[in-house]
Amino acid sequence: MNLTLKVWRQESPNDKGNIETYEAKDIPAEASFLEMLDIVNEEIIVAGGDPIHFDHDCREGICGACSLTINGVPHSKENGITTCQVHMRKFRDGDTIWIEPFRARAFPIVKDLVTDRASFDRIIASGGYISVRTGSAVDANSLPVNFEDASESFNAAACIGCGACVAACKNASAMLFVGAKAAHLNLLPQGEPEKDKRVLGMVRQMDAEGFGNCTNQYECEAVCPKEISTDVIAKLNRDYATAATREAVE
Amino acid sequence: MNSLGKSLCRFWHSSIGKKIVVALTGAMLILFLLGHVVGNLLVFAGREAMNDYAEFLLHMMHGTGIWVARIGLLVALVLHIVATVSLVRQNRAARDVDYSCKETVQASKSSRIMIWSGLTVLAFVIFHILHFTVRVDSGLANLHDPANPDRHDTFGMVVAGFQNPLVVLFYIVGISLLCSHLSHGIASVFQTLGWRSKKVAGPEKKLGWAIAILLWLGFLSIPVATMMGCLGDPPKIHAAVEEPAKAE
Using a CB-CB distance cutoff of 8 angstroms, which residues of chain A are in contact with residue B109? Predict the structure, then answer.
């Protein structure tokens, strides 16, 4: 199939950047979206140009490295998958495809479609961990966890930290990411003792990074490749209110 | 500043803290609107019922009740607006370069115009207070209850106040935007206060829509019924409005 690509090109973090048009010719329908970009890049390199830079790693939909906002939707309109799992058979011959980076002030562009998502790492470093040694694997039944909490924690833990939630939110809010990472630990007995410190630390770091605020439109949930529910945002709101109240009283 | 002051300051400056302020003040304003519409619907029970209700509000707790309510509502409204405007400014700063190709997946139209519906409702509220509370129109301010000339004729004021089609049109626009605002706002209160989960999200969303629709019907029934002549004889009301001018 032949496609027209409208791709965001930006030489460096301080460059203004602009959309450039490329013709992608003879793209096999079975190619993945990233393979399609590989093919286009080979042609650009042969012609002596600078290839399109984009993030990628496992190409199996599990690492969270790939990004790209495809036709205005992070990871494309396909539900529950990452960009590397999008295949060209979902497009039609002659289509025009807009390819932009995950846009947020807290995700500065490094080059072209590559963004620096280290702000997520700093949020994790501010509380997204358990600071005691939990030991080696113990008997599964020695520390009881009820089924609902275990399920919710497991679902939240599926977050791969790709940043699509931020990219989709009109406010560039990171509430789904922070909510998932906090809920993952807060729901378990190992994470419960540091719950207040964790929530206060992570939310304050999230604000300091310059992410926006959740306005409950749930675009994040719609594009999340791991289909994490916005229930984790409600839980984060509740946990933050409780932690802030305890902090004020103590 | 003591530790409590510091904590409150940190709460206000946090994204979630400010959103909780918006949710709590929004909830207060929703409760007021529910009470306001029920009271206003007494207009359909006739002049005496409406004027008794207005007199009760004015003299509640020896006249202090209405001022406690007014100050409380004003504080809630100001906090709601200040916190929201601050959040919107932060939100706009959070994406310095916008997408060239934008697509919405599931956000409702009401949720996407919250700041604009809210600011239009603010303009409407100012007009409404000047219209029926401050009564900048002396014709509406000088109406007297025919059965008890010592008290203001609130019923007559409502009927006279809705004789102008442009005023009625502004009320229709203002109330419609208010209800659009609430259709998203009520469900958002539950989410922001942490009372939403997949199990209750559906009923909460329906509750938001139900309250918004009931308020829309309740508030707009009054100007529409007045325009249709269901609340009495407009000429008599006009005569009452024009009386002070004749006296001059």
Answer: none
Q: Give the closest of B8, B101, B197 to A248, CB-based.
A: B8
Fold classification of B15-94+108-247 is 3 helical TM bundles of succinate and fumarate reductases (1.20.1300)
Domain residues of chain A, as ranges?
3-110, 118-249
Query: How confident is residue B140, by pLDDT bands cut at 50, 70 and 90?
Result: confident
CA distances from B135 to A9, A188, B139, B158 (A): 60, 59, 8, 11
Is B91's CB within 8 Å of A98's CB?
Answer: no
* Partner residue facing B194 (CB), from A77, A98, A234: A234
A106 to B2, B47, B75: CA distances (angstroms): 33, 60, 34
- A-chain residues within 8 Å CB-CB of B91? 170-173, 212-213, 215
Q: Where are the domains of chain B?
A: 15-94+108-247
Distance CA A206, CA A197 (A): 14
pLDDT tens for B39-88 read 999 999 999 999 999 999 999 999 899 999 999 999 999 999 999 999 99
pLDDT at B245 over 70: no
Tell me the backbone φ, ψ of residue A24, rounded to 5 degrees: -100, 110
Task: Give A80-106 pLDDT, tens digit per residue.
Answer: 999 999 999 999 999 999 999 999 999
Question: Between chain A and chain B, how many beta carbons pairs sit less than 8 Å apart?
Answer: 146
Rounded CA separation B93/A79 (Å): 29
Residue in B99, B182, B188 to test binding to A, most A beta-carbons within 10 Å: B99
The alpha-carbon gap from A39 to the nearest alpha carbon of chain B, in Å, equals 23
Q: What residues of chain A score a pLDDT lower than 70?
A: 134
The reply to whether CATH 3.60.140.10 applies to domain A3-110 is no
Report which of A30, A129, A42 is spatially closest to residue A86, judged by C-alpha positions.
A30
User: What's the gap in Å between the CA of B76 and the closest CA on chain A?
Assistant: 19
Q: Of A50, A53, A104, A55, nearest to A83 (Cα)?
A: A55
- Is the CATH number 3.20.20.80 carried by domain A118-249? no
pLDDT value at residue B232 = 76
